[in-house]
Structures are given as C-alpha cells and as structure tokens.
Amino acid sequence: MITPLDVQNKEFSRVVRGYKEEEVDEFLDLITVDLEKLITNNAALKEQVAALQKDLSKYKASETAVLDTL
C-alpha cells in the first residue's frame, strides 16, 4: 500500500518538455493530505466495526439466554 510518505518522497525524471515542477509538487501535497485523512478515517472505522461486532456478540448471547429461558 502506498503511504503519504511515499507520495511526498516520489521524484520524477526531468525532461525538456515535461510538466511544471511546482504544479506537480502542489498536486502531490494535496494527494498526501487526502491520503493521510483516508488512512486515519479507515483506522477509526475499523475500531468502530470491532466495537460494534463485540456489542453484537453480546446481544446475540443475551438473545440466546432469553430464548433458552422461554
């Protein structure tokens, strides 16, 4: 998986009729910021899913206990 650091450290070869270096650098900066946000958001969502799965297991156990009682 590509990391924000990979994006920041990427260097392109230079040619006579290439792109403007400043524009490429600005775009890479934007990508880096968005990628960092996505990684952080993904980690938070994974934690939320784990917590919800734990709650679900607890509720399923409670349901089973209620059904056994009935």
Notes on the structure:
The protein is an all-alpha fold. The protein is built from two helices and no strands. The longest helix has 49 residues. The radius of gyration is 24 Å and the shape is rod-shaped. It starts with a helix and ends with a helix.
- Overall strand count: 0
First CA to last CA: what distance? 51 Å
Instruction: Label the overall shape.
Output: rod-shaped
**Please, what is the average pLDDT?**
91
Q: How many whole angstroms does the radius of gyration measure? A: 24 Å
Task: Note poorly predicted spans.
Answer: none
Q: Biggest sheet: strands, sense, closure?
A: none
Tally of helical runs? 2
Share of β-strand residues: under 5%
The SSE order reads: HH
Category from helices, strands and their pairing: mainly alpha
User: Helical content, roughly?
Assistant: over 70%
Write the layout of secondary structure elements.
Layout: H1 4-9, H2 21-69
List keywords for this structure.
single chain, rod-shaped, mainly alpha, 70 residues, 79% helix
Short description:
This protein is mainly α. It has helices at 4-9, 21-69.
